[in-house]
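New to this. Help decode the following:
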Amino acid sequence: MMNKVTAACIIIGDEVLNGKIIDTNSRFFAQFCFKLGIKLQQIITIGDDKQQIIETLHAAKKKYQFIITTGGIGSTHDDITYECVAKSFNLPCLIDEKCKLRMQEKSNPEGRLSPQALKDYYKMATLPSGPNVKNYYLFDDLWVPICCIDRQVFIFPGIPQLFERLMTGLTSTVKKIYNLAEEDIEYVRFFVKTSMTESQISHNLKLLQEDALKVSPEIKIGSYPHYGTGFNTISILGEKKDEKYLLELMKRAEKEFEGQQVSTEEEDEVSNKR
Protein backbone atom coordinates (compact mmCIF):
# COMPACT_ATOMS: atom_id res chain seq x y z
CA MET A 1 0.00 0.00 0.00
CA MET A 2 1.38 3.38 -0.98
CA ASN A 3 2.25 5.75 1.81
CA LYS A 4 -0.63 8.22 1.53
CA VAL A 5 1.16 11.52 2.01
CA THR A 6 -1.14 14.50 1.40
CA ALA A 7 0.07 17.90 0.29
CA ALA A 8 -0.98 21.51 -0.25
CA CYS A 9 0.63 24.38 -2.12
CA ILE A 10 0.12 27.98 -0.95
CA ILE A 11 1.01 30.64 -3.52
CA ILE A 12 1.49 34.04 -1.84
CA GLY A 13 1.54 37.31 -3.74
CA ASP A 14 -0.72 40.15 -4.85
CA GLU A 15 1.08 40.09 -8.21
CA VAL A 16 -0.39 36.66 -8.97
CA LEU A 17 -3.91 37.71 -8.02
CA ASN A 18 -3.81 40.93 -10.03
CA GLY A 19 -2.50 39.19 -13.13
CA LYS A 20 0.95 40.77 -13.24
CA ILE A 21 2.69 37.40 -13.26
CA ILE A 22 1.65 33.87 -14.20
CA ASP A 23 2.03 31.27 -11.47
CA THR A 24 4.09 28.31 -12.72
CA ASN A 25 5.27 27.13 -9.30
CA SER A 26 2.06 25.29 -8.45
CA ARG A 27 2.24 23.29 -11.68
CA PHE A 28 5.87 22.40 -11.03
CA PHE A 29 4.96 21.31 -7.49
CA ALA A 30 2.07 19.23 -8.84
CA GLN A 31 4.50 17.44 -11.15
CA PHE A 32 6.94 17.00 -8.26
CA CYS A 33 4.23 15.37 -6.14
CA PHE A 34 3.06 13.19 -9.02
CA LYS A 35 6.55 11.77 -9.51
CA LEU A 36 6.84 10.91 -5.82
CA GLY A 37 3.36 9.51 -5.40
CA ILE A 38 2.32 12.33 -3.07
CA LYS A 39 -1.37 13.28 -3.17
CA LEU A 40 -1.54 17.00 -3.85
CA GLN A 41 -5.03 17.90 -2.67
CA GLN A 42 -5.13 21.69 -2.67
CA ILE A 43 -3.52 24.66 -4.40
CA ILE A 44 -4.33 28.00 -2.79
CA THR A 45 -3.45 31.46 -4.08
CA ILE A 46 -3.65 34.32 -1.60
CA GLY A 47 -2.45 37.91 -1.37
CA ASP A 48 0.12 39.63 0.81
CA ASP A 49 -2.25 39.85 3.74
CA LYS A 50 -1.08 38.81 7.22
CA GLN A 51 -4.38 37.53 8.54
CA GLN A 52 -5.17 35.63 5.37
CA ILE A 53 -1.76 33.92 5.32
CA ILE A 54 -2.01 32.92 8.99
CA GLU A 55 -5.59 31.64 8.67
CA THR A 56 -4.74 29.70 5.51
CA LEU A 57 -1.80 28.03 7.23
CA HIS A 58 -3.85 27.17 10.32
CA ALA A 59 -6.41 25.43 8.12
CA ALA A 60 -3.83 23.64 5.97
CA LYS A 61 -1.83 22.35 8.93
CA LYS A 62 -4.89 20.48 10.22
CA LYS A 63 -5.40 18.63 6.94
CA TYR A 64 -2.10 18.08 5.13
CA GLN A 65 1.22 16.49 5.98
CA PHE A 66 3.36 18.29 3.40
CA ILE A 67 2.76 22.01 2.84
CA ILE A 68 4.82 24.45 0.84
CA THR A 69 4.56 28.21 0.51
CA THR A 70 6.09 30.20 -2.33
CA GLY A 71 6.56 33.95 -2.51
CA GLY A 72 6.74 36.83 -0.08
CA ILE A 73 10.26 36.36 1.32
CA GLY A 74 12.02 39.36 -0.22
CA SER A 75 13.19 42.59 1.37
CA THR A 76 10.23 44.93 0.74
CA HIS A 77 7.35 45.92 2.98
CA ASP A 78 4.92 43.40 1.49
CA ASP A 79 7.25 40.42 1.95
CA ILE A 80 5.69 39.00 5.10
CA THR A 81 5.71 35.24 4.62
CA TYR A 82 8.43 34.41 7.17
CA GLU A 83 6.70 36.54 9.81
CA CYS A 84 3.27 35.04 9.14
CA VAL A 85 4.43 31.42 9.04
CA ALA A 86 6.27 31.99 12.32
CA LYS A 87 3.13 33.46 13.91
CA SER A 88 1.07 30.50 12.78
CA PHE A 89 3.39 28.30 14.88
CA ASN A 90 3.71 30.85 17.73
CA LEU A 91 7.39 31.32 16.95
CA PRO A 92 9.57 34.45 16.81
CA CYS A 93 11.42 35.63 13.71
CA LEU A 94 15.12 36.27 14.38
CA ILE A 95 18.22 36.96 12.33
CA ASP A 96 19.66 33.59 11.36
CA GLU A 97 23.42 33.96 11.69
CA LYS A 98 24.24 31.20 9.25
CA CYS A 99 22.03 32.76 6.60
CA LYS A 100 23.49 36.21 7.30
CA LEU A 101 27.04 34.86 6.97
CA ARG A 102 26.23 33.19 3.67
CA MET A 103 24.74 36.46 2.38
CA GLN A 104 27.89 38.31 3.39
CA GLU A 105 30.17 35.78 1.74
CA LYS A 106 28.29 35.76 -1.54
CA SER A 107 27.33 39.40 -2.08
CA ASN A 108 29.31 41.67 0.31
CA PRO A 109 26.24 43.72 1.34
CA GLU A 110 28.14 45.85 3.90
CA GLY A 111 30.44 47.08 1.18
CA ARG A 112 27.74 48.21 -1.20
CA LEU A 113 24.53 49.07 0.68
CA SER A 114 23.43 52.04 2.77
CA PRO A 115 22.45 51.36 6.42
CA GLN A 116 18.73 51.35 5.58
CA ALA A 117 19.18 49.16 2.52
CA LEU A 118 21.35 46.80 4.57
CA LYS A 119 18.65 46.52 7.22
CA ASP A 120 16.09 45.71 4.52
CA TYR A 121 18.48 43.22 2.92
CA TYR A 122 18.87 41.27 6.15
CA LYS A 123 15.10 41.02 6.41
CA MET A 124 15.61 38.03 4.12
CA ALA A 125 17.73 36.41 6.84
CA THR A 126 15.13 37.06 9.55
CA LEU A 127 13.64 33.59 9.77
CA PRO A 128 11.27 31.64 12.02
CA SER A 129 13.29 30.46 14.99
CA GLY A 130 12.82 27.58 17.42
CA PRO A 131 13.71 23.96 18.17
CA ASN A 132 11.24 22.69 15.57
CA VAL A 133 12.77 24.81 12.76
CA LYS A 134 15.33 23.46 10.30
CA ASN A 135 16.90 25.42 7.46
CA TYR A 136 18.07 23.44 4.45
CA TYR A 137 21.00 24.94 2.52
CA LEU A 138 21.09 22.78 -0.59
CA PHE A 139 23.55 24.52 -2.90
CA ASP A 140 26.91 26.13 -2.21
CA ASP A 141 26.25 29.01 -4.60
CA LEU A 142 22.94 30.00 -2.97
CA TRP A 143 22.52 31.69 0.40
CA VAL A 144 18.73 31.31 0.55
CA PRO A 145 17.55 28.34 2.64
CA ILE A 146 14.38 26.31 2.55
CA CYS A 147 12.99 27.01 6.00
CA CYS A 148 11.03 24.05 7.40
CA ILE A 149 8.87 23.99 10.52
CA ASP A 150 7.69 20.81 12.24
CA ARG A 151 8.77 18.75 9.22
CA GLN A 152 5.47 19.92 7.71
CA VAL A 153 5.66 23.47 6.31
CA PHE A 154 8.41 24.41 3.85
CA ILE A 155 8.97 28.04 2.86
CA PHE A 156 10.23 28.67 -0.68
CA PRO A 157 11.04 31.80 -2.69
CA GLY A 158 8.60 32.68 -5.44
CA ILE A 159 11.09 33.21 -8.31
CA PRO A 160 10.32 30.23 -10.58
CA GLN A 161 13.91 29.40 -11.56
CA LEU A 162 14.98 29.45 -7.91
CA PHE A 163 11.88 27.64 -6.70
CA GLU A 164 12.28 24.83 -9.23
CA ARG A 165 15.96 24.34 -8.43
CA LEU A 166 15.36 24.24 -4.67
CA MET A 167 12.27 22.05 -4.99
CA THR A 168 14.20 19.52 -7.06
CA GLY A 169 17.11 19.67 -4.64
CA LEU A 170 14.79 18.81 -1.76
CA THR A 171 13.69 15.50 -3.32
CA SER A 172 15.84 13.17 -1.19
CA THR A 173 14.89 15.05 1.99
CA VAL A 174 11.16 14.75 1.22
CA LYS A 175 11.55 11.02 0.58
CA LYS A 176 13.32 10.59 3.91
CA ILE A 177 10.90 12.71 5.98
CA TYR A 178 7.80 11.02 4.61
CA ASN A 179 9.18 7.48 4.30
CA LEU A 180 8.66 7.32 0.56
CA ALA A 181 10.03 4.06 -0.84
CA GLU A 182 11.04 4.06 -4.51
CA GLU A 183 9.27 0.83 -5.36
CA ASP A 184 5.76 1.78 -4.24
CA ILE A 185 5.28 5.53 -4.53
CA GLU A 186 5.35 6.24 -8.23
CA TYR A 187 2.26 7.15 -10.22
CA VAL A 188 1.91 6.28 -13.91
CA ARG A 189 -0.51 7.69 -16.45
CA PHE A 190 -1.64 6.73 -19.94
CA PHE A 191 -3.55 8.76 -22.52
CA VAL A 192 -5.97 7.71 -25.25
CA LYS A 193 -7.05 10.12 -27.98
CA THR A 194 -10.57 9.79 -29.39
CA SER A 195 -12.66 11.73 -31.90
CA MET A 196 -15.82 10.77 -29.99
CA THR A 197 -17.45 13.57 -27.98
CA GLU A 198 -17.64 13.61 -24.19
CA SER A 199 -21.38 12.96 -24.39
CA GLN A 200 -20.73 9.88 -26.50
CA ILE A 201 -18.12 8.44 -24.12
CA SER A 202 -19.64 9.57 -20.82
CA HIS A 203 -21.58 6.41 -19.91
CA ASN A 204 -18.88 3.89 -20.78
CA LEU A 205 -16.24 6.08 -19.13
CA LYS A 206 -18.24 5.90 -15.91
CA LEU A 207 -18.38 2.10 -16.17
CA LEU A 208 -14.64 2.03 -16.77
CA GLN A 209 -14.06 4.06 -13.60
CA GLU A 210 -16.40 1.84 -11.56
CA ASP A 211 -14.49 -1.27 -12.63
CA ALA A 212 -11.16 0.39 -11.88
CA LEU A 213 -12.20 1.32 -8.34
CA LYS A 214 -12.69 -2.38 -7.59
CA VAL A 215 -8.94 -2.77 -8.14
CA SER A 216 -7.73 0.41 -6.41
CA PRO A 217 -9.22 3.69 -5.15
CA GLU A 218 -6.11 5.40 -6.51
CA ILE A 219 -7.06 4.77 -10.15
CA LYS A 220 -8.54 7.90 -11.67
CA ILE A 221 -10.03 8.12 -15.15
CA GLY A 222 -10.74 11.50 -16.69
CA SER A 223 -11.71 13.10 -19.98
CA TYR A 224 -10.16 16.29 -21.33
CA PRO A 225 -11.74 18.09 -24.30
CA HIS A 226 -9.44 20.06 -26.60
CA TYR A 227 -11.48 22.84 -28.12
CA GLY A 228 -11.09 23.22 -31.87
CA THR A 229 -8.92 20.13 -32.38
CA GLY A 230 -11.64 17.59 -33.15
CA PHE A 231 -10.61 15.15 -30.43
CA ASN A 232 -10.70 14.53 -26.69
CA THR A 233 -8.17 12.80 -24.48
CA ILE A 234 -8.91 10.13 -21.89
CA SER A 235 -6.48 9.98 -18.96
CA ILE A 236 -5.89 6.76 -17.01
CA LEU A 237 -3.87 7.32 -13.84
CA GLY A 238 -2.83 5.01 -11.02
CA GLU A 239 0.00 3.57 -8.97
CA LYS A 240 3.03 1.92 -10.53
CA LYS A 241 2.15 -1.39 -8.86
CA ASP A 242 -1.08 -1.50 -10.92
CA GLU A 243 0.62 -0.71 -14.24
CA LYS A 244 -0.39 -4.03 -15.86
CA TYR A 245 -4.06 -3.37 -15.07
CA LEU A 246 -3.77 0.25 -16.23
CA LEU A 247 -2.45 -0.96 -19.58
CA GLU A 248 -5.47 -3.26 -19.83
CA LEU A 249 -7.74 -0.27 -19.16
CA MET A 250 -5.95 1.69 -21.85
CA LYS A 251 -6.49 -1.10 -24.39
CA ARG A 252 -10.15 -1.29 -23.40
CA ALA A 253 -10.49 2.50 -23.83
CA GLU A 254 -8.85 2.33 -27.26
CA LYS A 255 -11.41 -0.28 -28.34
CA GLU A 256 -14.54 1.20 -26.75
CA PHE A 257 -13.83 4.79 -27.77
CA GLU A 258 -12.26 4.09 -31.18
CA GLY A 259 -9.11 5.77 -29.99
CA GLN A 260 -5.36 5.41 -29.92
CA GLN A 261 -2.67 5.89 -27.31
CA VAL A 262 -0.78 9.19 -27.29
CA SER A 263 2.36 10.02 -25.36
CA THR A 264 2.51 12.32 -22.36
CA GLU A 265 4.57 14.74 -24.44
CA GLU A 266 1.91 14.87 -27.18
CA GLU A 267 -0.86 15.39 -24.63
CA ASP A 268 1.08 18.12 -22.82
CA GLU A 269 1.70 19.95 -26.07
CA VAL A 270 -2.02 20.11 -26.83
CA SER A 271 -3.16 20.77 -23.24
CA ASN A 272 -0.76 23.65 -22.69
CA LYS A 273 -1.12 25.29 -26.07
CA ARG A 274 -2.31 28.89 -25.72
Summary: The radius of gyration is 22 Å. The first helix runs from residue 14 to 17.
